[in-house]
Amino acid sequence: MEAVARRLLCMRPSRRNPSSLRRFSRHRGEEEDERRQHHQPLQLLREVVVDGVGGLDEMESALDQLDIQVSPSLVSQVFDSCDAGAGDTRRLLRFFAWSRRRTQDALWGDPFTRAIRTFAARGDAPAMGILISDLQRDHRHMEADTFAFAAEFLVKLGRPDDCLRLLKMQGAAAGGRRPITSERILAVVHALCGRGHAERAAGLVGRYRGELGAAEMAAASRSLLHGWCVGRNAREARKVLEEMKSAGARPGRAAYDALLRCLCERNLKFNPSALVPEAFSVMAEMRAAGEAPAAVSGNILLSCLARARRVKEAYSVLQSMRRAEGKRPPADWISYYLVARVLYLTGRFIRGNRVIRQMLEDGVAPEPRFFRRLVGLLCGVESLDIALEVFDHMRGLCAPQDCGPVYDLLIAKLCRSGRFDSVRRLCDDAAARGVLLGCSRELLDSSKKEVFEPAKTEKETGRGLVRVSSSRERRKKMKKMKKLKKMKKRRST
User: Fold this and answer.
1) Taking CA 470 as the corner, what is the angle to CA 464 and CA 474, rounded to the nearest 5 degrees?
2) Is the predicted pLDDT of residue 472 greater than 60, yes or no?
3) Taking the model in full, what pTM does it have?
C-alpha cells in the first residue's frame, strides 16, 4: 500500500489536449454569439422604445436607423417586457404602428393581444380604442380571454355601445362565415350586467337566444338578475328569477342574496318599515328552493337596519340569529360588529358592551379589525372609558403586533384629554408585551402636550343619552350673551 501511495504521489497530472480545448472554446463562443444575437434585437428595441428620450418622431427615426428585422414574436416580447409598468403608452403605441408598417406578416393576433392587455392594465382608453378600431378594420379575430378583458374594460369606461360593437365586429371577422360563440356572448352579458346595463344585456340575450344552450342560458339569466339588482329594479329581477324557476334552473344562493340586497336597498330608501318582513320572506323562499341562508344574508339585512338607525329591530334580528329561531341564518363576527356599531353610535354603550360579551360567550372569534374599528369609533365620539373596555377584550384575543395601532390611537386621545395615568399604564403594558409604539415619548410630558377639555360630556340615564354642557361651553354662551346686550344698548342709543 505504501508503494502504491508513493507511485500515485509521484505521478504528474496529465495535460489536456489543446485541440479539444480549442473545439470546446469554439463551441462555447458560438453559443454565446447565438444568445447575443437572440437578445440583441430585443435589448436594442427596449433601449429606444422604453428607455429612450425625446419625441415620438425622434423615436421613429431612431428605429429606422436600427438594422433589425421586426417580427410579430419580437413585438410580443417587447410588450411582455413592459408588464411591470415600464415604458410610456404613447411610445409603445407608435412602436406598434411602426412595426406593422415594417412587416406584412399575417400572424399579428398575438401582438394585438399583448398590446391590448398592456394598455388596459395601464388604463389608457384612447390607445386601446385605436387598437380595437385597427382590429375591426383588418377583420381580425380576437382570442376569447382578450375579448372578455376588452369588453369589461370598455364597459368600465362607460362605453357599453362600443362593447356591443366589438361583439358584432368579431362576428364579421371572418367575413360572416364564423358565428359568434356563446362564450363571447356571455362575456359581454357579464360585463354589461356588472355595471348595471341590464336592459342592453337582456336585448343581447334575446337576440342570440337560439345560439345559447341550457347551461349558457342559466348563466346568462344569473347575470341578468345581478344586473337588474345593481340597477335597483326589483320587479325585473323577480321576473328573471321566476323564469329561471319555470325553466328548471337552480338560481343559487348568490342570486337570492342579490335579490335580497336589491329589496333591502329599495326599502331603505322608500319604506324602512318593510325591511324585516320582506327580507324574511326572501329567506323563506331560499329555504323552500333548497338554499339555506348564510351569514351573508343576515348581514345584508343588518347593514340596512343599521343605516336606517332601526336599533331595536337590528338587535332583535341579531338575537334571533344567535338562537337560530325560525331557521334564521347563523351570526358571524360581522353581524355582531354591525349591531355593536349602531348601538355605540346611538349612545347605547351598555348594550353595545353586552353584544360584545355575547359574541365571546357564543365562541365567535373576531378578526383584529373588529376591535380596531370599534375603538376608533368610540374615540371619535369621545367615549374613552368604553374604548378602553373594548381594548381589554382585544388584548386577550389578538396577537401583540395587531394591537400596535390601537395603542397609538388610545395614547394620543388620552393625552389630549389629560389622562396621563392611563397613558402610562398603556405604555407599560405595551412594553411588557413587546409592542413597538409609533407615538413619541414626549406625549407623556404634560408640559409639552396641549390638553383640550371636551366641549360636551355625555351622561347615560334611564331616558337615554343626555348631553351635558361643560364649563368651557358655558363660558362661550356667556360671552355671546354679553355681546348681544352691548349691541342692544348701541341700537337703543
Assistant:
1) 120
2) yes
3) 0.72
